[in-house]
Amino acid sequence: MTNRYSRQILFPGIGKAGQKRLGNSSVVIIGCGGLGATIATSLVRAGVGRVRIIDRDIIRYHNLHRQVLYDEEDVGLRLPKAIAAERHLKRINSSVEVEGIATEVNHTSIEGLVSGANVILDGTDNFEIRLLMNDVSLKQNIPWIYGGAVASLGMTMTIIPHQTACFRCRFPSADPKAIFTSDTAGIIGPAPFVIGSLEAAEAMKILVGAEEVNRDLIFIDVWRGTFQRLRVNPRQDCPACQGRYEFLEKS
Predict the structure, then answer these.
(1) How would DSSP label each residue in 119-131?
(2) How far is the CA of 220 from the CAs of 178, 182, 217, 227, 244, in angstroms?
(3) Above 90 in pLDDT, residue 173?
(4) Would you call 11 helix, strand, or coil by DSSP?
(5) For the segment 146-167, what is each residue's pLDDT rounded down to a tens digit?
(6) CATH superfamily placement of domain 2-231
(7) Which pLDDT does position 70 carry in this prediction?
């Protein structure tokens, strides 16, 4: 399989040692729509050893313009995204262990679903699930990569537990009801393609032990062609950073 990754191995940031690390790594992708499908495709093609994909939704026609893993046959079969993603990805790279799980992510299930992962990746459009991802990341000391895309906009931020600011440091009191989604604001395919690619690149950097991990919140607008970075500092009063996992431990 060396030839499969030969061009990637030539890249100095990866090399033979980095490729071996990728092959020995495990990632969990929560959500497999526009973002998650791009992330999963990139990491499976890159040779990450184990890729677990979690999404309970089925594929619909309005997904196809931006969710690169699926086709019209999947829609006709009414397949869950996680199951269709597993099928397609195994055909792309049979050497990768791909597991699609069609289930709900909540405070009772998330710890078991991410157990053993080296990185957790955000492919959702759900604010509450991101708060859960943040809690479980800090509790289990697993890096996670936030990403969001709507309309022509996207943003991403890498969270290294107890080293960088966390998601709640940046979004301490955001109202999930006030957040736009593709259902309310629409979305064009390039936005999740770009953000999903950035998330995949961040995951690869973490997995190979690179020093260039992004520590800023990145904003893009693919329609206007703008790219901005915002430094996010840890908040001293952040409950998650202080070990209070309120969303994970709710009754």
Answers:
(1) EEEE----HHHHH
(2) 20, 16, 10, 5, 32
(3) no
(4) coil
(5) 999 999 999 999 999 999 999 9
(6) NAD(P)-binding Rossmann-like Domain (3.40.50.720)
(7) 97
